[in-house]
């Protein structure tokens, strides 16, 4: 069953700019351009694209904040713009850069407000809160005012707030932005559990590791249109994008030689090895670790803009 359905959805903005002392120019920006796609119940879909591609505009239309200029849009069978409050009970939204929590109140009070706002039945509320507190390790934070929380703690608090009313669909906009490695891991683990329990997830991010670890399907949007819909390895394979293994050796040495990767940069005891992003890093990491004395290793994902640029090149060449 499709939970999210867009059929030829467009959204234009009119921008008026000054052109001379008195004259104003009127320009139309088509942020979303005859966009069609469906997302099935239980899917976790990565929604990625360069800056200004139309991602936020899509998500705003899916929540009912923005009205489409044309086309048909349904979320859980509801027209978001027409029945925004009815839809609000069925969706959860988390924006990494903003919080829905009350700044001066303890976390617990924001949750209590959500309970009243969504009229969540008390037993269900208690069970959901317990589950979120356990999975997100919020126990010790419940009585802390939100303004005193770290970014990672606040994000975990926001995730719980978005899920207390058991939404069928969860929209996430950059949920790991600015978080340290440990917090990122915790947030991703939680999202995996939420999705495994049946919640449909639409995830907007600039961090390809989020997509790699959570989404079986990725949609790339550019200039308001879907330009790729498939798996992440498939996207990498299209343009031949590469990941980088950063290796800190115990001491400086000759460039590392392992099958499947090539050294692209050397700086003192640090070496950078590029390898196809569609392939697993595991055999390369194992080969390097076996043959070279190491201090540290890390894998860097390519940036989304590069992957998309390469995808276009691949599509032209291929
Ligand atoms: N309220 C608005 N008024 C005018 N133009 C807008 C408005 N909102 C978005 N746009 C324009 O629509 C286009 C798509 O913007 P949108 O914010 O949806 O992109 P995005 O993919 O979310 O980008 P980012 O990754 O930078 O958040 C951009 O050209 C943007 O300038």
UniProtKB/TrEMBL annotation:
* Annotated protein name in UniProt: ATP-binding cassette domain-containing protein
Instruction: Fetch the SMART domains from UniProt.
Output: AAA
The molecular function GO annotations come to: ATP binding
Q: Where does the ABC transporter domain start and stop, copy by copy?
A: 4-248
Task: Quote any Pfam family the record assigns.
Answer: ABC_tran
Compartment(s) of residence: Cell membrane
Which PROSITE patterns is this protein grouped with?
Answer: ABC_TRANSPORTER_2
Does the record's keyword annotation contain Transcription? Answer: no
UniProt key word NADP: no
Q: InterPro entries in the record, alphabetically?
A: AAA+_ATPase, ABC_transporter-like_ATP-bd, ABC_transporter_ATP-binding, P-loop_NTPase
